Structure formats: structure tokens, C-alpha cells
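Please, structure for the following, as C-alpha cells.
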Amino acid sequence: MKKERTKKIKQKAHILKNTAFMLGCAFKCAPLSLLIIYFSYIAENVYYSVVINVIFLETALSIIEGNGTFTDFAIRMGLIVLGKLLIDLIGYVDVYTVRIKFEIKCESYINSLIFKKAQQVELGCYEDPDFFDKYNRATWVVDKGGFKRIIEGSAWTIGSLISFIFLVIYLISIDPFLLVFIVCPVVVIAFRVIKNNVELEKEKDMTPFERQKDYIRRTILLKDFAKEIKTTNIFVVMDRRFRSAIKKNIEVIKKYGWKIALLECISDYFGEIIPVAGGLIYGCYRLIVLENLPISEFSVLISAITTCRNKLNHLAHYFAMQQKHCLWVQNLRDFLEYEPKIQGGGFDVDDFQSLEFRNVSFRYKEDGKDILKNISFKIEKGQTVAVVGHNGAGKTTLSKLLMRLYDVTEGEILYNGRNIKDYELLAYREKFASVFQDYRVFAMTVSENVLTEEVTEENADIAVNALKMAGVYEKISGLANKENTLLTKEFDSEGVLLSGGETQKVTISRLFARDFDIAVLDEPSSALDPVAESKMYDALISGTKGKTVIYISHRLSSATRSDKILVFSKGELSEVGTHEELMSKGGEYAEMFTLQASGYKEVGEDEE
């Protein structure tokens, strides 16, 4: 019981805190618009609930009973009509101008917070399903209109509460006993909250299956997977997974459906039947039996009780909805308040002199196996280093550790003799230029993809030169808009789809477009043929003179051009040396190189 009570207190606190958080965001975006929206909702609520349903009705019936003059009636009606015009005017201004801009500004602000945090969180978060579920639920605030609903819901709730207070005061002035019939709808709030908690549990249980459905929907529409889907039976597997996710969701709905239906039935009973029927019977008793209630007061009484019932039902509904939407906000706040595990230090980053791995071990999970085991080596300024080994040897993990996309589990990485954790994070990463094996281009222009920033008159030539150095400008210059051509057809049917090799060259050109101390190239030639690969390495050697370059590859073309070769095997550093030293040693590297060389020789003979 104590735990349940604590949970309820926390839920109430979350509603207040999360609503306050959203209101704070809204006030930062558009304070005047927020005040107009609130005034519009409150004024409209009070006008229809109190002025029309009570004051207008009471005035009209009093005139009929001879308790006032037509002049009094005309004056009151004039004020009521004037009030209606003002409220409509405010409502039109709100709906057609204020609210649209307000929603756009607020959604833009929330999205900017989400994007900024997404950029800060460490790479491991994107490989954590629980984190991904939270991230998806955080975006619901914008994607499902949660921001708008919370603001409007809170404004409507305040308006309903003010109206309800006025109506209760009026009913008490007629007969305090009428409060009995107002208590019953209050019970509705409790049942609505319980019902809402059940619905929240239902949505939580459905989230993994909804994510699976979303993944399949996205994958089927992506070009990257189109060939595999059309030429294999993987679509059958995906379709089966999609149907399975739907089936699982149906099971979840069945599990919670009867509870939700029962709670809704009880809510309707207490919220609709008891107050209206009870109030009507009591009013009739006073009117007919006791004969101490005028017909005008009887009519207004029934109207006031019905309006009170409606207000309480609205309050119950909006309170329950606020609770639901505030859970989305809680997910958003959890996401925004997440403190990245990889934090920068306070030291400035000097020009690069050396990089050292000292007894480094790494595992992705605390209880997982070591991907790298007790690795130690040192790279000096200006060296070209090849990191080679079979797939799964830990080469790519090494590149992620170099740029602090992950932190080491044991040991340390030293930059100029100091632990890289001591340096300001972004400044440290700016020392690197990287090309990853899972390279991607964005649905932007070629120049924007190369520069990875806004294109200006000052930097436009840098993109062109970088494309030339990467050996892809001849292709780009033949396009309709040259380097201003939009890549992919995501947003424009005139967008261009480059081949795999051309795409990789565009991503390599990013390296030539920026100033850096260390270049990290992870499988930079994976999509290139041997001739293009050789030209690319020539361009890299020419474009990185005086720089430190780290090639990571299972293809050994880069190794023969390197000052040092690091050979990885099953997460361990098995050999270190130059090409000549390792070949004379006759170890694992010599075996790999001989096998690859013979493969190229056989291909050459077949082509002859």
C-alpha cells in the first residue's frame, strides 16, 4: 500500500512538473501567444458554462415570471451578445494566426532540444534497445502532437475548473444539499486516472512491437535494402515479422481491453446517471412536494447540475489525458536530462605529436567478452599506420576508441602523453578526419555532403578541390547542377543516385575538405576496384603529406605504403612492423598478404 501511495504521489508530481516544463518551453518560445491561448480557452469556457447556461437562462425565466423589466433583459442580452463577439474575435485570432505560429515555434524548439541531445549522447546509446524505446517515446511529444495537447489541455482544465467553482457557488446559494450530486462525478476522476494507468501500461507493452513494425515499414521503402528485398525471400521473413508484431499487439489489447472497458463503464455511471437523475429527482421533490422552489430556479438548477457534470467529466478526461501526455513529456525529459557517459575534460588540445594505446582492453557490455585485449602501441606525428586483420579482429572498434565514440574498459589512450579523457571532447575530435566503412551520404547537395556544413562563397572552392583530389569530380561535373546537385531522391525526383564507388569517393573527399592532424580511414576502398583503389591511395598520400594517417582494412593494399603495420587477431595485437619486416618474419601478416596477392594474380590471369 505504501509503495502504491508513493507511486501515485510521484505521478501527480510528474503531471505538475511536466506540465510546468512544457509551459516553460512554450513561454520561452512565444509568451504573448501562450497568454492569448490561455485567455481564449478560459473566457470561452466560462462564457458558455456560466454566462449562457446560468445567467442568460436565469434572466430569461425571471422576465417570464414577472421579476424584471424588458429593459433589464435587453441590457443583459446586449452585454451577453457583446461578450460573445469579443470571445469569437479572440478565438478567430487564436485559431487562425496565433496558434499556428505558436505550434510551429514550440515544435521547432522541442525538436532542436532533441537533436542537440541526440548529438551529445554516446554511440553506445544507439545500440541499446531500451534507450531507443525511450528516444522514440520522447519524440511522441512532437510526432503525436503531445505539446499542443498539453498546452490546450491545461488551458481547458483551468477554464473548466474556474467554471466549476462559479457553478458550485451558485448551486450552494440555492441549496447546499445539491453538493451531494456533485460529489459523484468527482469519483469519475479517480476511475479515469486508474483507466489511464492501464492504458499507459498497454502502450508500454506495445512499444517494442510498434518499433518493429516501424522498422519494417521504413526498411521496405529504403533504397539501401531494395535489391535484397526484390531478389531474395527476405520479404517473406519481414512480412511474417510484421504480422507477428500485429498479433502481439492484439494480444496486448486483449489483455488490457476488458479492464479499460469496465473502468469506462463505471466512469460513465458515476459521471452521467447519478448526478443528472439525482439532481432532477431532488429538484422535482422541492418543486412539487415541498413547493419551495420556483420554476425559474428549478430550470437553472437542472442546467447548472448538468453543466457541473459536464465540467467534471471534462476535468476527469483532461486530467487523464494530461497524465498520459505527461508520460511522453517524462520520456522527453529523461532523454534531455540524460548525462552522456563520455564527457570532456578541461584541457585544450595542442597540435598532435603522438598517440599511444597503453594496455587497452575494451568490451561493449560489462558482462560481455573483450573485443580488444591488452593493446599497446604508439603512433608518432607524420606516420602512416596500417591496421590490418581478418573481419571481427577488433579493427573498427579501435577507430571508435580513437575518437572517443566509446571509452576504454581498461588501460588508457594518450594524446601527446595525456589521457584523452582530460581534453575538451569536441576540440579533441576536431583533430581527426574520418571515413567509416559504413559510409553514408545525406539527402543534400554534393558540396554540402563534402563540407558537412553550409556552403558559402568562401568555402565553395574547397568542396570542388576536395572532389578532384578524391577522383570523383569528373563524374560530378557532368551532372546538371554539378556540385550543387542534390544527392538521393529522398526529397527531389531530380536527385542523383551515385554508384557505391562514387559514393565512397564523395565521403573520402570530406577528408580533403577539412583541416586535421590525424586521418582515420576505416575500409576506405571497400567499394572500389583495384585500379580505383590504387589511385585513391595515391591521392591520399599526396593530400595527407605531413599528416598522420591510420588505415584500417582487411585488404592489404595500404600496408605496403605504410610506415608501420599493426596486425590484429581475435582482439589482440599479434604483430607490429614494416611490410618488409613482417614478410621476412613469415607470420600471420605474410600469410594474409600472400593469399591476397595470389588472388589478385589469379584474377589477372583469368582476365588475360
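The longest helix spans residues 234-290. The chain is about 65% helix and 10% strand.
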